[in-house]
Amino acid sequence: MNLLTAFxxxxxxxxxxxxxxxxxxxxxxxxxxxxxxGTAESAPLRLRMRNKIMLxxxxxxxxxxIYVLLTVTFGLSVDSIPRIVPDFxxx
Length: 91
What we know:
mainly alpha; 4 helices
């Protein structure tokens, strides 16, 4: 796997992981009963984006390491799926 492919795969994993982590631990203004005039009640009270980006990077690095382990070390790919799953087709 070359460097550009590795970066592209990591970026895709990072982006998907970010959207999975964003709602974790969010307290809305309605939850805290501290609604600022002119904002939605569902707006987050404290965004804490720096923490979420750091957590996203760590989780993405773990997922990417597992991906590299499976593809580079063990040689698994999409073509390996038919060999893993039994063939139930009738010939």
